[in-house]
Amino acid sequence: MPSRLSLRWLASLWIALAMIAGGLSVWVWMSSQAAWNAHLDRAYLAGLALHDSLESGSPLPDGLSLMRLREPPQLPHGWRETRITLTGGRPDLAQGARLSMRLQSPDIQYPAAEVQTVGGGSQAAGLASVTRTLARFCSDPRLFVQLEDGPWMRIDGTAVWGCAAAPRDLRLLSAGIAIGALLLLLGWAAEISGAFGTFTAALRDHRARTAALPVGGVDELRQTAEAVNAYVAQDRAALQNRAMVLSGVSHDLGTPATRLRLRSALIEDPKLRAKLERDIDEMTGMIDGVLTYTRAEIGAEPFRQLSLVSLAEAVVADYQDVDLPVRMTETLPRETRARSLFAREAARPAPDSHRLLMRGQPTALRRALSNLIDNALKYGREAEVTADGDADDVWLTVTDRGSVLTKTDLERLTGAFQRGENVGTASGVGLGLAIVSTIAVQHGGRLEFHRTNSGLAARVVLCRRWA
């Protein structure tokens, strides 16, 4: 199996990669911003040099060309034009030679208010601001200038402020690098969190004691899963070993117990013989109860589909065959409400009670119901069994007649080797309700007690689709 990096090393690696990606993103952004500022500065300087050429007749700067027009420039159809006039000296004083400009573009309307004066209020700075504004937007504009009443001149500066002259804008790429690195980092964190969440869900699963937990993820998680699996395996092996020992003891005590029964039959004193037989029954019953409780803890019986009503009827029929006061009470069908698009809400009968299907361990459920019925017969004289359920859970209720146990007593009796104060001379070792509670938990349910007018109702709630 290939070795996996630990969470510490992976976190360190991802933090280092995130820092590298962040530094790269900042460098790309700053480089692109610097190139863009250099492009704007070049256009601004070209505007200053152009003004000097127009005013003094000096050579035009590199990248610019001038063509004199015989007539004022005409605006082509569909184009947009912005007209700007600059005076010499300060812009608020009408003095010096007037410079008129026309900016024509096939797709951009240059608002005069958007042409910011950069570098002062002189006419040269104004023209430089115009050429800088032309470089800010990707277009192929035409610049026409007129000094006082002289001829109009077309300035061709595509090589300076045209789209082809603008540097490549990498700021979007920079943002993409930063966002991509962030998404990768968040994805890795979500993967790690999901692996721990899956492990936690598997650990909370009811099958954690009978099935191995998934081993995967980072090294720390893998080691934790392996340690938990080893612990669960040891715990399960201890339970199985306990059950095996108790089963062996129960089997080995069968022969001496049989000999004791045969020899007790030879005792002439009936009272002494009855006491001895009762002690033998209590001894064998105690061993069988502990063995049953241990097997219920292991829960090795496979789950399968079954009808809870049919199972309860079969258990009740076994008691009725020996004339014990146990009866099955049918649950009254409940009505559900249904609504259609063309009719008002209408009632319809609920499904047949025999369709209380669930996935469970039949032998364990028979044991749980038998224990509840036995308790009801011991302490309440008779037992009434009811099966019911809803879409998620099903439950079996056993109601007795005359039990006087309190809520505190009931909570205590769900523990092992606990018996009620009204037990009297009834046989048992105090494991019946503990077994029922264990079986209920293994089916995703619980054991509940409710006081009724006639006695005590013990209800075992089971999840329909627990395994």
Question: Would you mind describing this structure in some detail?
Answer:
The protein is α+β, with helices and mostly antiparallel strands. The protein has 3 domains: 14-165, no CATH class; 207-300, Helix Hairpins; 302-330 and 354-467, Histidine kinase-like ATPase, C-terminal domain (Heat Shock Protein 90, 2-Layer Sandwich), CATH 3.30.565.10. 49% of the residues lie in helices and 18% in strands. The protein has 10 helices and 14 strands. The protein has helices at residues 7-56, 123-136, 158-161, 171-204, 219-264, 270-298, 308-321, 362-380, 407-413, 432-442, and strands at 65-68, 80-88, 95-105, 142-147, 153-156, 304-307, 326-329, 335-338, 346-349, 357-360, 383-389, 393-399, 446-451, 456-463. It has a 5-stranded antiparallel beta sheet, covered by helices on one side. Strand 2 (80-88) and strand 3 (95-105) form a beta hairpin. Helix 1 (7-56) packs across helix 2. It is rod-shaped. The two termini are 31 Å apart. Residues 90-94, 346-351 and 422-429 have low confidence and may be disordered. This is histidine kinase.
